[in-house]
Write a structure and sequence with these properties.
heterodimer, A: alpha/beta, Aconitase, domain 4, 4-stranded antiparallel beta sheet, 4-stranded parallel beta sheet, 33% helix, globular, B: alpha/beta, Aconitase, domain 3, 16 helices
Chain lengths: 199, 464
């Protein structure tokens, strides 16, 4: 079962300039009761997005028509807390294919990579610039070029920054492979290895 | 070559290395619960593959379970459905399942050690970030996502980039009334909630040497709250004594063989860590959090820091205090509270109930406080009764609930109501973590007990 391929994404972005956005905010625990991977987008940022009577909170960015796109831009230490992959599923299901931040929590980053959401880590200054440009022009376009590992802002100078991703994960995303495909292919080696590991 | 404790265990488990990529890591033991596993099992079905080594996976129900009337059918249809899915999947794939009502049932990170599933030098994973708990035994243990759960079920391996190494040394000893929970909250307050992201932590020094296994579990449990993948402590005689004779621990010759390996598990003298911190036990006081991440903690005697002392994050900091309805500079002592929660994989072990009982003994619970006391497992529950703690608790006006994760993440009915304050021995004070609108103050079982008696944030040392 492979992931959707990711090569180049051109899109406007949704800004969430808050630090330490934890996975309990991305998807609160009470929405983790499904036994299938669908419908999580409806509860993405549930308690920031809706009042307790389900009316949308006007000042939350996902309820602001000015902002749209397949890129979510968050503050430092995005995705901290619980290991719930549901957080990445909710982001994907809502329609985001890429999350940009100056720092990601480890498990969240892995979860994103495993389901085909690209985490792009930029410098704190570049992140500031992104927020600044979106505030100036909410429709400004960004290019995320995975092959070149570049993020480009369509401002006057086409400000660009290089981002890191390990080559194996990069190739997986470009080709739409996942880790399980790889692991199943080396099962004979795993068997040999397992024989010498006490249960 | 000199190696760290982490290196020794990691290197032993590398099946394959991919150039410029992750390593294929063999997993000795895998714990599974109802919330993060169903989609992984669905993946196996879609690929039409079996669980490769079912004897290495252990399933329990904990996140979603009620903590009263566990003998009755689960009311919430969604929870019931998820519990049923785990039971069916365990049966289909031949995995041992300790579901609701089973005498070995309990929180995954409490029962792992109790039954000797957790061993030194092992690799242990679970679809839960607090899997770091098991590092207390010198294991590499960390939380994984559901895709990775599927990897482990189907191939007993995951792909992981080797993390950087960090050592946190605490010398000296702890003052009376200062617990392992305070040590962890102190470290997180010093390093911040992302201070160890990208690292695997080793805790060392006298404070950890002197600590009980339960205490070490509490500290390792909270490693993830400073962003670390996990935390570990080199095994010693206390570790071996704890494990010996437990159901799934090696026996006879296998024990001797295991001991040979376990005794090699320490960081070699002079080995370099990527990052190292030094603290002193005497500087740590009972801690409490005032904000909406576990790094926002302070000594219970101090006040809430001013936002102009917070690096860069003034805006987020103010949002956090606003949620808590606290002001910069407020004193924490004397703040009114409504709920007390004793339990969770952080502080739901027998030692935690002993601490709590020691404070409330001969006193009465404050009338305006609702207290939920939730043992981490049936084994803990039994010990509470056997040691006579239940009588102490009852006399002081407390009730004991049945085991589970409960109000730590409020997936079941144990939810703190909007706007209410809870002194909680759990691990996260995120917005809405304990129920929509709930306000959490993380603290030790001693601080929780003192608050339950007075109805406000109280220094437990005033009861000694």
């Amino acid at each position: 079962m492979s992931c959707e391929k990711f090569t180049i994404l051109k899109s406007s972005a949704v800004p969430l300039p808050i630090e330490n956005v934890d996975t309990d905010q991305i998807i609160p625990a009470r929405f983790l009761k499904a036994t299938e991977r669908k419908g999580f987008g409806a509860n993405l940022f549930r308690d920031w997005r809706y009042e307790s009577d389900n009316t949308p909170k006007k000042d939350f960015v996902l309820n602001n028509e000015k902002f749209s796109g397949e890129i979510l831009v968050g503050g430092k230490n995005f995705g901290s807390g619980s290991s719930r992959e549901h957080a990445a599923w909710a982001i994907y299901d809502y329609g985001f294919r890429c999350v940009v931040s100056s720092f990601f929590a480890d498990i969240f980053r892995n979860n994103c990579l495993n389901i085909g959401v690209l985490p792009v880590q930029v410098s704190p200054d570049f992140l500031k610039k992104i927020f600044f440009e979106i505030e100036k022009n909410p429709k400004i376009e960004f290019t995320i070029d995975l092959k070149e590992q570049k993020i480009i802002i369509s401002d006057n100078n086409f400000s660009t920054e290089f981002f890191e991703i390990n080559n194996y994960k990069k190739q997986n995303m470009i080709n739409g492979f996942d880790d399980i495909d790889y692991l199943i292919n080396i099962k004979p080696d795993i068997k040999k290895f397992a024989n010498k590991m006490p249960v | 070559m000199n190696k760290t404790l982490f290196d020794k265990v990691w290197d032993k488990h590398v099946v394959h290395s991919i150039k410029n990529g992750p390593e294929v890591l063999f997993i000795d033991r895998h714990m599974v619960h109802e919330v993060t596993s169903p989609v992984a099992f669905l993946g196996l079905k879609k690929r039409n593959i079996k669980v490769m080594y079912p004897e290495r996976t252990f399933a329990t129900a904990d996140h979603n379970t009620p903590t009263i009337n566990q003998h009755l059918p689960v009311k919430d249809p969604l929870s019931a459905n998820q519990l049923r899915a785990l039971e069916e999947n365990s049966k289909t794939y031949n995995i041992s399942y300790w579901g609701l009502g089973h005498k070995k049932n309990g929180i995954v990170h409490v029962i792992g050690p109790e039954y000797g599933i957790t061993l030194p030098g092992a690799t242990i994973v679970c679809g839960d970030s607090h899997t770091s708990t098991h590092g207390a035994f010198g294991a590499i243990a960390f939380g994984i996502g559901t895709s990775e759960v599927e990897m482990v079920l189907s191939t007993q391996c995951i792909m992981q980039q080797k993390p950087k190494s960090m050592r946190i040394n605490i010398d000296g000893s702890l003052s009376k009334g200062v617990t392992p929970k305070d040590v962890a909250l102190y470290i997180i307050s010093m390093l911040s909630t992302s201070g160890a992201t990208g690292f695997f932590v080793e805790y060392s020094g006298d404070v950890f040497n002197q600590m009980s296994m339960e205490g070490r579990m509490t500290v390792c449990n909270l490693s993830i709250e400073m962003g670390a993948r996990g935390g570990m402590i080199a095994p010693d005689h206390k570790t071996f004594k704890y494990i010996k004779g437990r159901e799934f621990a090696p026996k006879g010759l296998k024990w001797d063989e295991a001991m040979k390996y376990w005794k090699t598990l320490f960081s070699d003298k002079g080995v370099k860590f990527d990052k190292e911190y030094h603290f002193h036990g005497k500087d740590i006081e009972p801690m409490i959090t005032y904000g909406t991440n576990p790094g926002m903690g302070t000594s219970i005697l101090k006040g809430i820091p001013k936002s102009n002392n917070i690096d860069g994050g003034g805006q987020t900091y103010k949002k956090s205090l606003e949620y808590m309805s606290f002001n910069e500079g407020d004193k924490m002592i004397g703040k009114k509270i409504d709920f007390v929660f004793l339990g969770s994989c952080t502080n739901g072990r027998i030692e935690d109930f002993r601490s709590f009982a020691a404070i409330v003994k001969g006193r009465k619970k404050a009338k305006n406080v609702t207290a939920w006391l939730v043992p981490g497992s049936h084994m803990v529950e039994k010990a509470i009764k056997d040691e006579g703690l239940l009588d102490v608790l009852k006399e002081a006006g407390f009730e004991l609930r049945e085991p589970g994760c409960s109000a730590c993440l409020a997936m079941n009915d144990d939810k703190i109501p909007p706007g209410k304050y809870a002194v909680s021995t759990s691990n996260r004070n995120f917005e809405g973590r304990q129920g929509p609108g709930s306000r959490t103050l993380l603290a030790s079982p001693l601080v929780a007990a003192a608050a339950a008696i007075t109805g406000e944030v109280t220094d437990p040392r005033s009861f000694f």
